[in-house]
């Protein structure tokens, strides 16, 4: 059922498409995170901005991805932006809400203590609130990453220059060639799982205080 | 840079309304025209039921909350005119939930203000270790742990260490021991009092627990709902003469016992005992004790250490006195024994008198239930009847036992 010869013939193409996939996803997640952090900081400071931000992000998420990709072509042409704009927009609903939830999770007594010890608003954000929001931001990043990795395959509809591993899935479907479909799908799944593990590991490194080990925890 | 002298805190007609429109309608605010002075180096406890504005008052000192009207002066300077960052670095702040930074180690937490002040790393570490030792935590064992790995009592100690890090002249403590169990609370209270003996900070302390207020305060301010100050003065005075029914009710029906827990045997007048030594002739001793209203003769050894009581009725008319048939002296007090403990022991004793001894166990005098009762009736609870007297730091210091 699997055409191993095809696989061994196409190793360079598979690697190239895997790299492209990773690149499309990474740019989308990085830009999405940057926008979400900026909007999240604003919304955490001005609560009444949260509902409209959240609503818009939620509405964007309901637009079918195929339609959004197609609709952008006449506006921005066919280039990186055509692929990245929808990918970024779809990350926002998850990342923005998690960034705000992360800031909300900072205990009020910790914020008050920071104020009382003369932290300015900016230094409090950078040194106290942001680090403490990391666990929830990372949780959002993991969901957004898995979802973006899946979504990148759809960009294959824009043309051969896009799609990452989705290229194989569409090609395989068109040619009724299962090996190609499996190759694209399985590599996409492995990519998503691998990145998820990476983020779990990264979070452990970023938040050493969350590790409650046998290293001398006292009885409560 | 903050300096380490204690500072006076003065509330000058301070009012706080969270809602100005309600104020216009005449409804009470959080704090209503509060005026009081905390002398440098003393502990002032704001006590009252929830909603009495005690926490609001505290937070106006480091301007976490700004007053609607009135001024708060620290060493005569209106805090509203001070640079906010500078002001807050000169005021230590301890709260019930502690508010340690969960993502920083204990050492980093303690060194927070020194870091903000730009101290070099080596000096910060040295200071953090010094402070951890001061609050009874082994620096080597705790410095690199995170707050989540500590017990509530340990976290609260770290909170105190953090507040003291830059040696601020003022400490604000908002129910600092409210979240720990009673045994730990008592230990932390005692340790704070012990620390204060050497630190001599000006401490503004908020609690809803009148017992804690009486124990911790050189001065106690009783507040009521609506942010009104009902009475301010040394705890003994408030217990002896509550200014209103509300205060009397708030301090509790056992305020007499509470007063006695503040006073010590050393405050009673010294009443000499009729004494004799073993081997003394019985007849003159008997004559002396029959002439005294207190019916027991106290037998002492050659170094004036009490041996036991002899009842005047069983005293031999002739011969010599012997230590063989004495009623043991119990209880024995020293000057530091509280009147509450003394009374409790006296009520339980065979002879309802205790002996007061000095450090070497030598007799100083006797203490009877009647003497405690006389003190209770005559004592006004510190000699500070006038509110103006409490503005004088030396009076507050004198009121401290």
Describe the structure.
The complex is a heterodimer of chains A (220) and B (401). Chain A has 220 residues and is an all-alpha fold. Chain A has a single domain, classed as MetI-like (MetI-like fold). Chain A contains 9 helices and no strands. In chain A, helix 5 crosses helix 7. The radius of gyration of chain A is 21 Å and the shape is elongated. The termini of chain A are far apart. Chain B has 401 residues and is an alpha/beta fold. Chain B has 2 domains: 9-90 and 168-263 and 387-399, 3-Layer(aba) Sandwich (Rossmann fold); 267-378, CBS-domain, CATH 3.10.580. In chain B, strands 6-7-8-3-9-10 form a 6-stranded mixed β-sheet, with helices on both faces. Chain B has a 4-stranded antiparallel β-sheet with strand order 2-1-4-5, covered by helices on one side. The A-B interface holds A 107, 109-110, 112-120, 123, 128, 131-132, 207-209, 212, 215-220 and B 62, 64, 84-86, 88-89, 91, 93, 95-104, 112-113, 116, 141, 145-152, 154, 162, 172.
Brief digest:
The complex is a heterodimer of chains A (220) and B (401). With 220 residues, chain A is mostly helical.
Write the layout of secondary structure elements.
The complex is a heterodimer of chains A (220) and B (401).
Chain A: H1 4-9, H2 11-45, H3 50-62, H4 65-76, H5 80-104, H6 108-116, H7 121-152, H8 166-175, H9 178-206
Helix pairs in contact in A: 2-5, 2-7, 2-9, 3-5, 4-5, 5-7, 6-7, 7-9, 8-9
Chain B: E1 9-16, H1 20-24, E2 31-38, E3 43-47, H2 54-61, E4 69-74, E5 77-78, H3 84-89, E6 91-95, H4 106-110, H5 112-116, H6 121-134, H7 139-142, H8 152-164, E7 170-174, H9 182-199, E8 202-207, H10 210-216, E9 219-224, E10 228-233, H11 235-240, H12 245-251, H13 255-262, E11 275-276, H14 282-290, E12 296-300, E13 306-311, E14 332-333, H15 339-347, E15 353-357, E16 363-368, H16 369-378, H17 393-399
Parallel strand pairs in B: 3-8, 3-9, 6-7, 7-8, 11-12, 14-15
Antiparallel strand pairs in B: 1-2, 1-4, 4-5, 9-10, 12-13, 15-16
């Amino acid at each position: 059922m699997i055409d191993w010869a095809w696989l061994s013939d196409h190793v360079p193409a598979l690697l190239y498409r895997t790299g492209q996939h990773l690149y499309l996803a990474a740019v989308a997640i990085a830009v999405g995170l940057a926008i979400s952090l900026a909007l999240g900081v604003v919304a955490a400071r001005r609560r009444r901005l949260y509902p409209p931000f959240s609503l818009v992000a939620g509405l964007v998420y309901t637009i079918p991805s195929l339609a959004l990709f197609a609709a952008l072509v006449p506006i921005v042409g066919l280039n990186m932006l055509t692929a990245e704009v929808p990918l970024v927009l779809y990350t926002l609903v998850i990342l923005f809400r998690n960034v705000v939830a992360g800031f909300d999770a900072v205990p009020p007594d910790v914020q008050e203590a920071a104020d009382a010890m003369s932290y300015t608003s900016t230094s409090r954000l950078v040194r106290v609130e942001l680090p403490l929001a990391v666990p929830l931001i990372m949780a959002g990043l993991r969901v957004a990453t898995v979802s973006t990795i899946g979504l990148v395959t759809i960009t294959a509809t824009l043309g051969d220059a896009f799609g990452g591993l989705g290229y194989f899935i569409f090609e395989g479907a068109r040619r009724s060639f299962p090996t190609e479909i499996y190759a694209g799908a399985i590599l996409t799944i492995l990519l998503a799982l691998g990145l998820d593990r990476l983020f779990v590991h990264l979070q452990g490194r970023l938040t050493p205080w969350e590790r409650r080990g046998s290293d001398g925890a006292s009885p409560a | 840079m903050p300096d380490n002298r204690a500072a006076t805190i003065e509330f000058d007609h301070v009012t706080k309304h969270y809602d100005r429109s309600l104020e216009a309608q005449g409804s009470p605010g959080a704090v209503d025209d509060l005026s009081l002075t905390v002398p440098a180096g003393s502990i002032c406890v704001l006590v009252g039921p929830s909603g009495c504005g005690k926490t609001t008052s505290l937070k106006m000192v480091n301007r976490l909350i700004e007053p609607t009207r009135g001024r708060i002066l620290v060493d005569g300077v209106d805090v509203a005119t001070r640079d906010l960052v500078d002001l807050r670095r000169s005021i230590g702040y301890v709260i019930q939930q502690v508010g340690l930074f969960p993502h920083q180690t204990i050492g980093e937490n303690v060194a927070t203000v020194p870091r903000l002040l730009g101290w070099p790393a080596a000096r910060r570490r040295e200071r953090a270790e010094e402070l951890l030792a001061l609050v009874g935590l082994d620096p080597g064992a705790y410095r690199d742990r995170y707050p989540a790995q500590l017990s509530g009592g340990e976290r609260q100690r770290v909170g105190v260490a953090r507040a003291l890090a830059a040696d601020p002249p003022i400490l604000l403590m908002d129910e600092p021991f409210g979240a720990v169990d009673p045994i730990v609370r008592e230990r932390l209270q005692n340790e704070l009092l012990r620390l204060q003996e050497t630190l001599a900070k000006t401490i503004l302390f908020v609690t809803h627990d009148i017992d804690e207020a009486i124990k911790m305060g050189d001065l106690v301010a009783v507040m009521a709902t609506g942010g009104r100050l009902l009475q301010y003065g040394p705890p003994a005075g408030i217990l002896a003469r509550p200014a209103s029914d509300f205060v009397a009710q708030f301090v509790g029906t056992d305020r007499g016992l509470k007063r006695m827990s503040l006073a010590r045997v050393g405050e009673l007048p010294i009443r000499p005992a009729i004494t004799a030594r073993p081997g003394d002739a019985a007849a003159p001793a008997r004559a002396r004790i029959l002439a005294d209203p207190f019916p027991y003769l106290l037998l002492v050894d050659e170094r004036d250490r009490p041996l036991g009581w002899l009842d005047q009725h069983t005293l031999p008319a002739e011969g010599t006195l012997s230590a063989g048939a004495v009623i043991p002296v119990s209880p024995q007090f020293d000057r530091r024994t509280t009147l509450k403990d003394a009374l409790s022991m006296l009520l339980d004793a065979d002879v309802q008198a205790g002996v007061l001894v000095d450090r070497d166990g030598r007799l100083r005098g006797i203490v009877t239930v009647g003497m405690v009762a006389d003190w209770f009736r005559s004592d006004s609870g510190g000699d500070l009847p006038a509110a103006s007297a409490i503005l004088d730091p030396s009076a507050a210091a004198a009121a401290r036992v």
